[in-house]
Amino acid sequence: MRRPPDKSRQKAFGKSPNVIYCIERPVAGTSGCWLATARKEDYKTGVIDYIQKGGLLMWPILVCSIISIAVFAERLFYFHRATIHVGEFLKGLSNLIRRRNFAEGLHESAGTPGPVARVIHAAIIRHDAPRAELRDIVQEAAQLEVPKLERFLPVLATIAFLAPLLGLLGTVAGMIDAFATIASSGGYATVTELAGGVYKSLLTTAAGLVVATPTFVAYSYLSSRVNNMVHDMERAGIEIVHMLTESRPISGIISFQQPNETARELEARPDL
């Protein structure tokens, strides 16, 4: 039969600031109860407390989060400066190229930041090249810009993959601590002693997922920005090649007339 609660014991426990609860559970073949006591200060909910209670593996997870934030902020700033309105930029250049004012076109493209402007600048420098060569020039210039766009993105992908693994490793370490506590106490341990290892393992798992999830979202977003920028470079390359070739004067008739004029001059010379 269950023993009624002892009011004197409840009163004593209620006055103690260090006791949270008391658990009485009969164990087969034994007598007595398990008494679980803990200080409220041991389970604070601040970020610093989570890091301290999570163990050693919380620190590499924290470092991964700092690196992820820094890389994402740097890439956001880079794409903000590199993004231009391609249609308006090409419209302004078309007027200069139509008048064959290549010096002003070079000045405009050199003063505009971003990979799209650099691809256009490379084409205007060689504006007298044949159409096929101009296509090769813009393709090579775009290929040189892609690594700059993808800079640090592998770091985000690595963190998104590594952070959950670090959290899982912390979970394993916490469970090892919990079972080591049971083994050291001869197979019996208080709830508080077991809760310490479980608490530690859950903290590292949660921290790893908290870091990995936004990092993966940031990686996907930046990858889409890279794809959009590559599309803009391809569009600008095609249009600038068309502008440069269309702006050239028609000189085919002159080139065909030059050999005829030379033949007539030779026929008119009496010494030949």
Radius of gyration: 37 Å
Oligomeric category:
single chain
- Helix % is over 70%
Number of strands: 0
Mean pLDDT: 78
User: Low-confidence parts, pLDDT < 50 over ≥5 residues?
Assistant: 7-40, 252-263
Distance between the termini: 139 Å
Give the SSE string. Answer: HHHHHHHHHH
Strand content: under 5%
Which word captures the global form? rod-shaped
Supply the number of helical segments. Answer: 10
Class derived from helix and strand content: mainly alpha
Sheet with the most strands? none
Task: List the defining traits of the structure above.
272 residues; mainly alpha; 10 helices; 74% helix
Give the helices and strands, then pairings.
Elements: H1 7-15, H2 47-54, H3 58-82, H4 86-98, H5 102-111, H6 115-125, H7 131-149, H8 153-184, H9 191-246, H10 252-268
Task: Offer a concise description of the structure.
The protein has 272 residues and is an all-alpha fold. The protein has helices at residues 7-15, 47-54, 58-82, 86-98, 102-111, 115-125, 131-149, 153-184, 191-246, 252-268.
Structural notes for this entry:
It is a single chain. The chain has 272 residues and is mainly alpha-helical. The chain is 74% helix and 0% strand. It is built from 10 helices and no strands. The protein has helices spanning 7-15, 47-54, 58-82, 86-98, 102-111, 115-125, 131-149, 153-184, 191-246, 252-268. α2 packs across α9 (191-246), α6 (115-125) runs parallel beside α9 (191-246) and α8 packs antiparallel against α9. The chain is rod-shaped.
